[in-house]
Design a protein that fits this description.
- There is one protein chain.
- The protein is of the alpha+beta class.
- The protein has 2 domains: 119 residues, no CATH class; 131 residues, no CATH class.
- Helix content is 23%, strand content 34%.
- The protein contains 2 helices and 19 strands.
- Strands 7, 8, 11, 15, 16 and 17 form a 6-stranded antiparallel β-sheet that branches.
- Helix 1 runs antiparallel to helix 2.
- The longest helix is centred in the C-terminal third of the chain and has 36 residues.
- It is elongated, with a radius of gyration of 28 Å.
- The two termini are 25 Å apart.
Length: 267
C-alpha cells in the first residue's frame, strides 16, 4: 500500500517539473536564439517480486525443500532525468540593426552537431550562445546583450570601434580594412551542451570537420525554436497526468483510512 503512495507521488512530481519546463519554454518564445527544453522521463529501477516457500518431499519424515517462485516485475515510479535542449534552427527575422547577427546552419557532417558564437563571461571563461542580439560597448568592443564580450577565432575580443562595420556571410568582421574572423565554435554532439543561463551554453568544443558550412546574416536574428502551440498542448497533457496521479493518491489515502479505522474495529 505504501509503495503505491510513493509511485503516485513520484508521478505527480515528474509532471510538475515537466510543467515548469514547458512554462519556461513559453516564457522564452520571443527570446532570440533560445533553445527549447525537452524533459526526459525515466522510470526508477524495477523490482523483481518472488514468492518464498518450500516444497515437501514425499518421504517418511516429510523433508521440506526451500524454493522461490517468480511473480513478476514491479515498477517503483518515474522521475525527470534531465532537460535536454532542442537545437533545431529557429526562424530568421530581419531587424535591420547592424549589430544583430543570425548564425544559420549549413551542412553539418555530424547529425547531432551544432554551431555557436563564442563569448567571454565575467570570469574570463569561454561560453557559447546562439543569441546574436549583439551591441557595441563604450570601448568599441562587440558584446552580447548581457555584456559578455564576443570573441574571434583566436580567442580575442572583437574591437569594432563603433557601429560602422560589416560582417561577411562567411563570418568575417570587416573593420578598418581588416578581416576579423568571428569565433564560431562547433560541437559534434549538441546533447552534451548544458545551459548556464542568460542564453549561454557550456560544453566541449572541437574543430569543425571538413565540409561544415554556415552563414552569418548581419541585420538578422535567429528566433526561439519554441513551438508555442505544441508547448501548450504538452502542458495540458502534463496537467491531466498530474490530476490522474492525484486521484490515485487520493484513492490510496481513502483505502488507508478504512484500514486504520474500520478493519481493526471489533464488532
Amino acid at each position: 500500500m505504501l509503495r503505491g503512495f510513493y509511485t503516485a507521488a513520484s508521478g505527480m512530481i515528474a509532471q510538475q517539473r515537466r510543467q515548469e519546463a514547458m512554462a519556461n519554454n513559453i516564457s522564452n518564445v520571443n527570446t532570440p536564439g533560445y533553445k527549447a527544453d525537452q524533459p526526459t522521463l525515466r522510470a526508477f529501477p524495477e523490482m523483481l517480486m518472488q514468492q518464498m516457500g518450500s516444497a515437501e518431499l514425499p518421504t517418511k519424515h516429510g523433508f521440506k525443500v526451500p524454493g522461490n517462485h517468480s511473480i513478476g516485475s514491479l515498477n517503483t515510479g518515474v522521475y525527470v532525468q534531465e532537460n535536454v535542449p532542442k537545437f533545431s534552427q529557429g526562424d530568421i527575422r530581419e531587424t535591420g540593426i547592424s549589430t544583430d547577427m543570425a548564425l544559420i546552419n549549413g551542412v553539418l557532417p555530424d547529425k547531432t552537431g551544432a554551431l555557436f558564437f563564442t563569448v567571454q563571461n565575467d570570469a574570463g571563461e569561454q561560453r557559447y550562445t546562439r543569441n546574436g542580439n549583439f551591441t557595441v560597448d563604450g570601448q568599441g568592443f562587440l558584446v552580447a546583450n548581457q555584456g559578455y564580450y564576443i570573441l574571434d577565432q583566436a580567442g580575442n575580443r572583437v574591437q569594432t570601434n563603433g557601429l560602422d562595420f560589416a560582417v561577411t556571410q562567411d563570418g568575417n568582421a570587416q573593420v578598418g580594412g581588416q578581416n576579423i574572423p568571428l569565433g564560431i565554435a562547433y560541437t559534434p554532439d549538441a546533447s552534451q551542451m548544458a545551459k548556464e543561463g542568460n542564453g549561454l551554453f557550456i560544453g566541449e568544443m572541437r574543430e569543425a570537420p571538413a565540409g561544415t558550412t554556415y552563414t552569418i546574416k548581419q541585420g538578422f536574428l535567429e528566433q526561439s525554436n519554441v513551438d508555442s502551440l505544441q508547448a501548450m498542448t504538452q502542458m495540458m497533457e502534463s496537467y491531466r497526468m498530474f490530476e490522474t496521479n492525484q486521484r490515485v493518491l487520493k484513492a490510496y489515502d481513502e483505502s488507508m483510512g478504512k484500514a486504520v479505522n474500520e478493519v481493526g474495529r471489533l464488532g
